[in-house]
Amino acid sequence: MTLKSLAPDSKFASLEVALKHFFGYDQFRLGQREVIEAALQHQDLMVVMPTGGGKSLCFQLPGLLLSGLTVVISPLIALMQDQVTTLQANDIPATFLNSSLDAATARQRIAEVYAGKIKLLYVAPERLLHESFLTLLDQVHTQIGLAAFAVDEAHCVSEWGHDFRPEYRRLAEVRQRYPQVPVYALTATATERVRQDIMHQLQLRHPFVHVASFNRPNLYYEVRPKSRQAYADLYREIREQGQASGIVYCLSRREVNEISARLQADGISALPYHAGLSDKARTLNQERFIRDDVQVMVATVAFGMGIDKPDVRFVIHHNLPRNIEGYYQEAGRAGRDGEPSKCLLFFAAKDIHTIEWLIERKVDPVTGNPLENEQRIARQQLRQVIDYAESTVCRRTVQLGYFGETFAGDCGGCDNCCHPKPVEDWTIPAQKLLSCIARCQERYGMNYVIDVLRGSRGQKVLQRRHDQLSTYGIGKDKTVDQWRLLGRTLLHQGVLTETTDGYPVLKLNDLSWEVLRHQRSVYVPIPVDSAPAQPSNARREEAEALFQQLRSLRKELADQQSVPPYVIFADSSLKLMAQQQPQTLVEFAKISGVGKRKLEQYGQQFTTAIRAHRQEQGLPIVSETDAAELEKQSGPASIKLSNTVLNTLQLYQQGKNLAEIAAERGLKVQTVAVHLEDLIREGYEIEIEALVDCNSQGAAFSQRKQAIAEVIDRIGPISLTKIREQLGNTYTYEEIRLVRAWWQRQQ
Q1: How many Cβ atoms from other residues are within 10 Å of residue 486's Cβ?
Q2: Are 658 and 669 in contact (CB under 8 A)?
Q3: Which pLDDT belongs to residue 538?
Q4: Which domains are present in the chain?
Q5: 272 near 222, Cβ under 8 Å?
Q6: Helix (H) or strand (E) holding 650
Q7: pLDDT of residue 229
Q8: 88, 146, 203, 387: which one has the fewest Cβ atoms less than 10 Å from its Cβ?
Q9: pTM score, two decimals?
């Protein structure tokens, strides 16, 4: 097909020529050309392409080649602004109308639409359906013509999708008002059920349907248990990524704020993004991320929908996502340029309870009654996510199977394939499970079938007389978790199916009967039970070093009060501090032997010492300011400056330098430097030039200060030892510590 046959007055000889002219690409990606040809034939479209697959081009290029205006319905201001900015950079006549514009700008853009200067107009569904805007479209339809309506993120139409939006349901009104104008539905994620619902809701007529493969071969998928040191694990993972751009997704605004603040304190440029921020702040943070002004965006799940940043190298889910469809799309922000990228999910049981609580809050905004259908769907989607996280089979097999795509497994790009678990032949247990499903007439879900297998005396089992089935009680040799593992494996391997209408009922299929007839074997990957990890020698040595530092601090305080050291804290308490390394007063209060009084008396000194130790070791820390903020949110009021720090401040204000303060107070110079570091971070104006040895003052110290700052700029502020290694032994830890505190205040 040539463009001449579709648009005789077109200046382009072929679609490839038009593609090169407008977008600079030499060839289409897989499937794009066929979709665009259908659009140029004025067909409705149902297009499913994975993130990074180029679905936007499928409506943008036809919009430029067809006569009239193409209206693009987009759910987010950030999304439409991002796409329009990219189009305008290619000198493509596109614009948007949304609430971010003042009245004068909106009027000017509407005038450009009337004048035929705009080919692609982006609007939100709420504006599209407003009567005044429909009146505008009536005039455009008469004077210029409407080429098409493109519904981007079309999964929002379906209540079975991962991001259902009720206002999208009304888009059918546009089809009824302009019945001859083609409608394009486009999304990156949609199951067969969602696709059918989209086509029904938007009243598509004989649409051209294109469903691309959901496989993203450049992405590496991993699920990792969330440990008690969750932040330390997250920090370490980001550090391993170097300077690469990444996104960290969290469930709550509180976690977003907390993690972004801690990353900033630990030398990683990070910004928050959530609905609690102002529109201006969100827009600014997003722009800074897109422009590589910051490395990491810590965000709730709303961030990133449709953002065209191609070089996101890692996406970390700090919490369990709500459904597989959402996870696939969020993780898909990584590697849009096709380069290798990592998708890491931290899995913790407590996240399940959080999501269940959110599901319970799905109520009708008018009546307050529970939206039972939505809740039921959400619970089933949550269970599917848990199955994915706990799965021992190829991650892609589970993901692609969710979307109805068959994948053979052994992808070489996920943790389960790269580090496979040992497998066992579970054909006989599988036959028991499948037989029990058949005996129960394929009418029940996983939990109920397991109850029958294990001989439950539950009321429902007895009422239904399933205790009389031949399969009743034949599965007592395995635990509930083992049966669930088998059930999940059979589902992932396609040997068993499950209904997806919110009532998950197990159903047999052809492969099930092959197993029952001894024509197929079942092998199940078995998780390896690992013994509790013992601390490494390095970790024990590091804890012992901190323990000795805390003993010295205890002795110092005891001498000041003329009491035995054990009166301050017992050795057992110090050992717990060295092992757990609490950095805030809230964490410190949980140490055995720390009561309210000792928390008030000594909490600040000991947590300061612990943070100083962690800095020396290159471990992530919570700064004094962040610790105070966390404590304020968590309960007990923070004690920002202890008496000992205030005493140091008073001596500094009397004009004494670092060595003089240490001598007068009978403290180590290092301890005084830590006090002054805290004062600088708390916002006190401390002239560090006046604190160091007299021989280093004046121009000489200014040069040293600049040299220290340049090293911190280059390698980051985390480790004093590493900074000193770059500078040489002529620099003291104390002056590096003070310059670092000053440097961090400037950021």
Answers
A1: 22
A2: yes
A3: 63
A4: 3-211 (3.40.50.300), 219-417 (3.40.50.300), 425-525 (1.10.10.10), 536-640 (1.10.150.80), 643-747 (1.10.10.1390)
A5: no
A6: helix 643-653
A7: 84
A8: 88
A9: 0.55
